[in-house]
């Protein structure tokens, strides 16, 4: 799933490609992906694209007076095309969900792999008309997001597990499964540690969050969309690396499997050398 660093890089890359260009049309292939009806998609035909912004994991395309907002969900992606699309006569088949076409025929395809379709597209007058954006918590890279901000969030979350708090978009925007694993590894904290913690621990978590996200953005800076997935995977230390050696201490990276996702961690770095029980209500083994 694209998270804050990848969506940030996508917004930067697409702004460079689209700003000042005239949008010819947006073709919706997967009808279920379109979540709005007013304004109609046809209203996007003709205006100039002003740029692309990021709200948490949402992409926000300013098109004239309207906003085209996309959430790529777990398996969505954007593939740029320099030339007009080739018509295959198989509309509705395969991973293609939508196609944006500029006045010269270039543009991009929005695709979604797999059978579980969660990609969402909105045409709105304001980004806050999208319920998911309206519910977003503060952005962890915003100037006003300080260590005190995080400490207040953690205190309010109380006994909730820190992994879930970091992933909750209404609490902190933009962090998902992968980067929550990476942040907790850098902070040397168990994913099941209660959110309410000491001031020293909150400061350590804040520093790990800032360093992890900013380093990921720096690695992705200037990369095209086609390169971002590979770059993300290469930069992860524990997430997706079950069975490999921890790059910090050399212990074996382990995982906990949930109903619809997994998390990875290093026992030596994060749980005092004790493995976590691999079940939904995991706790440290006695």
TrEMBL record:
Keyword entries, A-Z: DNA damage, DNA repair, DNA-binding, Glycosidase, Hydrolase, Lyase, Metal-binding, Multifunctional enzyme, Zinc, Zinc-finger
Domain FPG-type positions: 237-271
Highest taxon of source: Bacteria
Cofactor(s) recorded in Swiss-Prot or TrEMBL: Zn(2+)
Catalytic reaction annotation: Hydrolysis of DNA containing ring-opened 7-methylguanine residues, releasing 2,6-diamino-4-hydroxy-5-(N-methyl)formamidopyrimidine
Limits of the Formamidopyrimidine-DNA glycosylase catalytic domain: 2-109
MF terms (GO), sorted A to Z: 8-oxo-7,8-dihydroguanine DNA N-glycosylase activity; damaged DNA binding; DNA-(apurinic or apyrimidinic site) endonuclease activity; lyase activity; zinc ion binding
One Pfam assignment: H2TH
Listed Gene3D superfamilies: 1.10.8.50, MutM-like, N-terminal (3.20.190.10)
SMART domains according to UniProt: Fapy_DNA_glyco (SM00898), H2TH (SM01232)
GO biological process: base-excision repair
Keyword presence, DNA-binding: yes
Family per similarity comment: Belongs to the FPG family.
PANTHER family, per the entry: FORMAMIDOPYRIMIDINE-DNA GLYCOSYLASE (PTHR22993:SF9)
Name this protein carries in UniProt: DNA lyase
């Amino acid at each position: 799933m694209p998270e804050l660093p990848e969506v940030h890089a996508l917004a930067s890359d697409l702004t460079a490609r689209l700003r000042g260009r005239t949008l010819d049309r947006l073709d919706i292939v997967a009808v279920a992906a379109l979540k709005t009806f007013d304004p109609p998609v046809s209203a996007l035909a003709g205006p100039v694209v002003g740029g692309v912004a990021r709200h948490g994991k949402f992409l926000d395309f300013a098109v004239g007076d309207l906003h085209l907002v996309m959430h790529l969900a777990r398996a969505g992606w954007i593939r740029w095309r320099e030339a007009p699309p080739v018509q295959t006569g198989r509309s509705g088949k395969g991973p293609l969900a939508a196609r944006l076409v500029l006045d010269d025929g270039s543009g991009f395809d929005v695709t979604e792999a797999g059978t579980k379709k969660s990609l969402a597209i909105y045409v709105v007058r304001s980004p806050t008309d999208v319920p998911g954006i309206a519910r977003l918590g503060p952005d962890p890279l915003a100037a006003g997001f300080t260590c005190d901000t995080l400490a207040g969030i953690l205190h309010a979350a109380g006994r909730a597990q820190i992994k879930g708090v970091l992933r909750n978009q209404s609490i902190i925007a933009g962090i998902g499964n992968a980067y929550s694993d990476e942040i907790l590894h850098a902070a040397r904290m168990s994913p099941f540690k209660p959110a309410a913690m000491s001031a020293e621990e909150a400061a350590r978590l804040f520093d790990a969050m800032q360093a992890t996200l900013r380093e990921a953005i720096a690695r992705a800076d200037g990369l095209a969309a086609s390169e971002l997935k590979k770059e993300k995977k290469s930069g992860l230390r524990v997430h997706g690396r079950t069975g490999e050696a921890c790059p910090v201490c050399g212990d074996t990276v382990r995982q906990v499997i949930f109903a619809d996702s997994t998390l990875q961690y290093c026992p030596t770095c994060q749980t005092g050398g004790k493995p976590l029980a691999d079940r939904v209500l995991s706790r440290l083994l006695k």
